[in-house]
Design brief:
Blueprint: H1 5-20, H2 26-55, H3 61-76, H4 79-96, H5 100-117, H6 120-136, H7 140-157, H8 160-176, H9 180-193, H10 200-213
Helix pairs in contact: 1-2, 2-3, 2-4, 3-4, 4-5, 4-6, 5-6, 6-7, 7-8, 8-9, 8-10, 9-10
């Protein structure tokens, strides 16, 4: 595994400053290293979130990591990175703390930033979780709009496990709206999309939904 190019640049700038008398390059080195730190904090936060989903044991460092990443990205003027970090702050509050009221502003901020940056994947995540929040609050038409838009984006991106995850949500929504045929169709498609090993976790959700909704 090779060293991150930004760290290599920082090492080079150290030599330029110390041996070449180029102190002016140190600010650029700081920015490169801040970007590396932001990426690392975001990645560590996602790993902590995945561990929570598996073990259901909260790790408060998860929120600290996402907030650190968001602050660094904001200082760097990295709208795309900040949007992704803001989404994960929202996910921590909604999923780990079961605090949707605190999560919603983070999701809305993430959606605005990701839209501005053209980051369709983060837009799809923000839309999905705004849809979940709307569903839980009984705003079913709003939930459907968010989930269908998230699904459309994920299809465009070829993110098939994410499409399947959304179809499970749309099946639950269809059942609640009195559309059992749509619910069954969503789950059939989700099952087809989760045959690959990379989607086995989502396949469990499909099976659970089929049992709960008594669909074929």
């Amino acid at each position: 595994m090779t060293m991150d190019a930004r760290i290599e640049k920082a090492q080079l700038r150290y030599e330029q400053a110390v041996f070449g008398g180029r102190a002016d390059v140190l600010s650029a080195a700081d920015r490169d290293l801040d970007a590396v730190e932001a990426d690392l904090a975001l990645a560590r936060g996602r790993v902590a979130h995945a561990r929570f989903l598996e073990q259901r044991v909260p790790d408060e460092r998860e929120l600290e990591l996402f907030e650190r990443a968001a602050g660094l990205y904001r200082a760097l003027g990295d709208t795309r990175g900040e949007g992704e970090a803001r989404f994960w702050i929202g996910a921590f509050h909604q999923v780990v703390r079961d605090d949707t009221a605190t999560a919603l502003p983070a999701f809305e901020h993430a959606l605005a930033l990701a839209t501005a940056a053209g980051d369709r994947l983060t837009v799809s995540y923000a839309r999905r979780h705004l849809g979940i929040a709307a569903h839980l609050s009984g705003r079913l038409d709003e939930a459907r709009t968010h989930l269908e838009e998230s699904t459309r984006l994920r299809r465009e991106l070829g993110f098939l496990p994410g499409v399947a995850a959304n179809l499970v949500g749309l099946a639950h929504l269809a059942a609640r709206q009195g559309r059992p045929d749509d619910a069954a169709a969503h789950l059939r498609e989700a099952a087809d999309l989760t045959d690959a090993p990379a989607a086995r976790g989502v396949r469990r959700w499909v099976n659970q939904a089929r049992a709960e909704l008594a669909t074929e």
